[in-house]
Please model this.
Amino acid sequence: MSKKIDPCTLVLFGASGNLARIKLIPGLFHLDEAGRLDDDMKILSVGRGEVSEEAWRADIKGMLDAKFKNGYDQKVFERFIKRNHYHANPPTDPNAFVKMKDRLSDEKSFPQNLAYFLSVRPTDFATVVEQLSGVGLLDESKYWRRVLIEKPFGTDLASAQALQAELTKHLKESQIYRIDHYLGKSAIQNIMLTRFTNAIFEPLWNNEHIDHIQITNNETLGVGERTTFYDATGALRDMFQSHLLQTLALVAMEKPKDLNPESIRAEKIKLLQSIRPIDVNNLNKQAFRAQYSAGRVQAGDGHAEKVPGYLEELKRDGVDSSSTETYAAVKLFIDNPRWKGVPFYVRTAKRLHEGNTAIAIRFKKSPMQLNDDQHQNWLIINIQPRECVKFEVESKIPGLDIATRTLSIDAPQRQAGDESIDSYETLMLNLMEGDPSQYLHINEVEAQWRLVDPIVKTWANDKTPLHQYPAGDRDPKESSVIFEAEDQFWRYSIELGGDKH
Ligand code: BG6
Model:
């Protein structure tokens, strides 16, 4: 269902940064190619340095050449390039925002509905909003004005609330679009649709039938050049706090009464608020952390490449020690009738043996047990790299004996000819459409920090040396301390046998 977009100007702060160059500008081009941008829509890229309009347009061509190696439609390019303008906003110029307002006031060049994408340092979010407000650029009396805030929204509950307080001096909640790029992924959006547009799942989706649920994001990549950011952040705040808790909310929430943004967000908020707070006195049984050491990971060409450990990478950048986790696994319970007693195991890691993001649901033992180690049904909603839904079922082996084997019913979400859309494209389109359903409400952000803060604090005060796992290995076996039952274990790849290790 495509919605109508009002003519608008997208004002892109941080236009010379990596996100804009690699995702946002090529993403906007792709939307233009797909005919999803209004004819009059304009893009004003804002950066610190002076760049001529000509040079900026040449730069854009370079970004598109780098992204679309097989070429692109020249006619669309001509149309796209005319939409693009550049504006220098030097931090040293006290009149910079007045000049921006003068530039944007030119109604012939720029539609007056304004969407601001703040791809800037988190410490600058509030300042930019204050300055925009100061010159009247957030005023909605005649046109809409929306502000997209990149992640992270705070680094804990207090800082998120402080940022919120600053923003709401100038903005209504309906103007604030807090991004979590996972919500723009097609496979993540598929969770809610799979659950509620099929009759077969809902009756099973509860503690009567489900043994436990695993939500996993494992990466083979390490922290690379991002040591400063990562060391101050850690796996829990980087991945778990938003991407994985949002995924959990979609897996576990009740059916929204309709698909309006308020209805979807209301159910997610309710769910996030009903996750049982972590008992920090028993944290060792509920959460496990570790750091990768040197090891070998699968390189693109299939050979095992030697890679340094996390602490060695930090040392290279002048940091001598760290207790920041690159692996985090947490057990959660949801205090509502549907999920009473069902553990949710949520884990994320850098430098594991495989890169995969998945929701793996193990069902309870079946009513008929032919032998002690009969396979329990698994339903796997795989997010990436393969987008698919898999169901593992027992079936008779043809022949004279009564014996079963496990079959895997595989439903790929992606079929030949399907569009491939980056999550930022979807989310930018939603921003221009005024559809916040795939953006975070402040109540979601707060519920997420409320849950995560006590773990972060307890870990920060715990000086026990972190468990190390060799890069390219599977989960440290000590992580199984969080399992509720002895027969539970980490589910690996989506292939059959991913439960045998
Ligand atoms: C980012 C994190 O938000 O998400 C990164 O900062 C992580 O550390 C990335 O690698 C994962 O995103 P994706 O889309 O590659 O799964």
In short: Residues 398 and 404 are 9 Å apart (CA to CA). The chain has two domains: 9-150, 183-482. The chain has a mean pLDDT of 95. The first helix runs from residue 18 to 33.
